[in-house]
Amino acid sequence: MAKELSLLYFPDDLPSGTIHEDLGKRHVIWQKDEILGIIDFDRSYYGKLVFDLAEACRGWCFINNWREWSNKNFRAFINSYQNERLEKRLFI
Description:
Layout: H1 2-6, E1 16-19, E2 28-31, E3 34-38, E4 45-48, H2 49-60, E5 62-63, E6 68-69, H3 71-88
Antiparallel strand pairs: 1-4, 2-3, 5-6
């Protein structure tokens, strides 16, 4: 995957911040409909947030046992991710 990423161009001015890099459902602690915490930061690093989004969407936006992409889940995820980043200023 590193080889493929090295072939892509990402502008220097893309937002950066701490990337979890494996933000799947198994790493989120819930209480009812509220996130209490996020665990397992062993693969985290500082970088372009677009990488975090791509990896997280893979874990949150497929339905029917990974057989179907959900645009509804994608829009909800992107909106929530952006709101959290902006609200908590988790980017540079």
